Amino acid sequence: EVDASVVAKFAAANWRAVRGLLSRRNLCLRQAAFWALTTTRRPEVVEPMLALLLDQRGNFDHDYAYVAAMHLGAKLVRPLGTVALTARGLRRTFAIECLGMTRAGRASVSFLRRVVAKQGFVPGVLDALRELQRLDLRHRPHRG
Known about the structure:
The protein is mainly alpha-helical. Helices cover 71% and strands 0% of the residues. It has helices spanning 4-13, 15-20, 27-39, 46-54, 61-72, 77-86, 89-101, 106-119, 125-139. It starts with a helix and ends in a 5-residue tail after the last helix.
């Protein structure tokens, strides 16, 4: 068993070096480095998250990124929303999808509305809304 608080302290103190490991060829090393960065719970993890998604080398790189978005939740909404509003192409799409994966409810929807108003229904918006709907359905009381 790993004490994530120890990993978080190390990753926070060595952020640049740990982030640099994302460019390595070894898939396990890349994924472990990304996980270490997520243990810090810093919103700055958005950039390594998007880097991992934009340079997927392993079958599970996207899983690591999306699970991190779910785990860190609302604290990632603002940085992801900023990228979603300003970026283009896959970078924007991945930021939008991660907004939905945060499952941060109204905060995520607010940014998605702004994206749609500014750029239209660009790729990723429907996926993000579907993820947010899953959250909503889980938290509604069953009426049967």
